[in-house]
Amino acid sequence: MEENKGLPPLLMDVDADVLARNVNRVRRTLDENRYGSNPPAKLIAVTKTVAPEVINQLKALDALDIGENRAQVAMPKLPKIAPEFRLHWIGRLQTNKVKYIIDDVCMLHTLDRLELAQEVDRRARQHGRVIPALVQVNIAREPQKGGMPVEEVEGFLRQMSAFPNIHVEGLMSIMPLDASEEELTGYFRGMRTLFEEMRDLAIDGVEMRELSMGMSNDYAIAAREGATMVRIGTALYRRD
Question: What is the largest CA-CA distance in the chain?
């Protein structure tokens, strides 16, 4: 695996009271923005920019689902964090990095092409695993982002029966950073509609139960529009 060249240094320390305040604030916001009668969206604490010492502080707050996006950053951390943490892969995954994460990931949020499905299935079979995965959708059609357009999702899902070592459990999307609240609401609502449509199709080997969307700048909107998981980084570690 390549070294961490060109990557910013990790955040090494966060005051425990600040972290607790921020985690509680996010959870309170999620509770206040439930989708109908559903339970609050689950917090995935994005830890890609923080050191193991900070990650371990999340254990006392029962924030055990963590998100990473670079194999060369995540893998050295894992031996240094508590075994109770559950690793979610939230970044675009190159096929040549699958081998590094296959034993440790609890869910892959960014399944977005057949080439990746083939490699994940192959590596998972070698390791005797079935990998839970979410299909990434580029609902805003941003050319710089991963994910497939809405119209390709059903066809992709129907091919998943060919990969018995992958269990598709829902959808994931990343929204534009510069979108207005009205635009974001439309995108999130579109993802929830797509999620429900795919669920109603009852495609063999596919189970629509998780919808991963929303980050620090838009997670309240995502939650009230139907996210079951939100991926929060900055809002957990800031000192304001």
Answer: 49
Residue type, 36: G
Is residue 204 exposed (0-12), middle (13-18) or buried (19+ Cβ within 10 Å)?
exposed
Structure-block tokens of residue 178: 């510069």
Give the whole-angstrom CA distance, residue 48 versus residue 123: 24
User: How many of the other CB atoms lie within 10 Å of CB of 19?
Assistant: 21
What does the block give as tokens for 222?
Answer: 């995502």
**Continuous segment of H or E residues that includes residue 74:** helix 71-77
> Residue 19 and residue 121: Cα distance in Å, rounded?
37
Quote the tokens at residue 46. Answer: 């994005």
In order of 73, 100, 240, the CA distances from 2 in angstroms are 10, 12, 35
d(CA 44, CA 212): 9
Query: Cβ atoms within 10 A of the Cβ of 173, count?
Result: 27
Residue bearing tokens 């689950």 = 42
Nearest residue to 174 via CA among 136, 205, 126, 144: 136
Q: Is the pTM of this model over 0.85?
A: yes
Q: Could you state, in chain order, the average pLDDT of each consecutive group of 10 residues for the chain (240 residues)? A: 59 90 98 97 96 96 97 95 98 95 97 98 98 97 91 97 97 95 97 98 95 97 98 92
Contacts 24+ apart (CB under 8 A), 28-31: 29/219, 29/220, 29/223, 30/219, 30/220, 30/223, 30/230
